[in-house]
Amino acid sequence: MSLVIDLSGKVALVTGASQGIGAQMVRTFQAAGATVMLNHPGLESTAQDAEAIAKELNSVRPGSALVIAADVADPEAVLAMMTRIRDTLGGLDFLINNAAILRDRTIAKMSLEEWQAVLDVNLSGVFHCCKFALDIMRDDGAIVSLGSISSILGFHGQTNYAAAKAGVQAMMRVLSREVARRGIRANAIAPGVIATAMSATIPPEVSKAMLQNVPLGRFGTVVEIAQVALFLCSPLASYVTGQTIEVNGGWRG
Fold it and tell me: Using one digit for the tens of pLDDT, what is the confidence trace for 133-153?
């Protein structure tokens, strides 16, 4: 017997979809049959990158990928994004909260602006997207938000990032209770270190030390994270909600 995840007729919004994990998320969900909305913040090359991905996907299945700009830290921008999705596609089935930034520094040296910027995007941004997505989300949908191994291990210099990601994981536990009556499931994924442009900034000696803690002996890939998100949004995970799924190669500190 073979199992196939078919999301035909479903609509998925991925925030921070112009690169890294988010870009792979839209490719994976589109390959499973969903229509995907690629969100980007409109900063630097994010719009151009998102448009390139959408063009790639639409060349395979016309009309399967749309691009939408919104800074998730801005509640009015998020509300406008959700309104456009409702007006364009009729509603939403899956929300993938992936958008995040880094502003690493020790507590003693971290500026108030660096603290607030990360909380605004990584935590408040998830709240904004969940709050306004629920107004357009169809029953029996799913929400997946990206947490982090940092929230569990507390990496040096990541007070803002770790606090935000721990908050996201707690938010999903609460949300799962609040939306259960509609059949909507809410879960978090806590990746370990994943091979992306963001992780490429880790100094080689630090990277080597990290790998010594990973039983599988390697960092994860964006495909491996996207596949877990796909599972969580599929009927195969119909009884999974309020959980944080750790995808970290066995790293336990």
Answer: 999 999 999 999 999 999 999
Cα atoms in the Cβ-side hemisphere of radius 13 Å centred on 175: 28
- Please report the DSSP string for 5-72 in residue order: ---TT-EEEESSTTSHHHHHHHHHHHHTT-EEEEEE---TTHHHHHHHHHHHHHHHSTTSEEEEE--T
**Pair 130, 59: CB distance under 8 Å:** no
User: Distance of CA 211 to CAs 36, 192, 216, 218, 252, Å?
Assistant: 34, 11, 9, 6, 12
Question: Which tens digit of pLDDT belongs to each residue from 154-203?
Answer: 889 999 999 999 999 999 999 999 999 999 999 999 999 898 876 777 78
pTM to 2 decimals? 0.96
Into which CATH architecture does domain 11-247 fall?
3-Layer(aba) Sandwich (3.40)
Torsion of CA 157, 251, 144, 199, to 10 degrees: 50
Active-site residue list: 161
Q: pLDDT tens for residues 91-126?
A: 999 999 999 999 999 999 999 999 999 999 999 999
The number of beta carbons lying within 10 Å of the beta carbon of residue 205 is 8
Specify whether the CB–CB gap between 72 and 66 falls below 8 A: no
244 — phi, psi (to 5°)?
Answer: -115, 115
Q: What is the domain partition of the chain in residue ranges? A: 11-247
For residue 1, pLDDT beyond 70: no
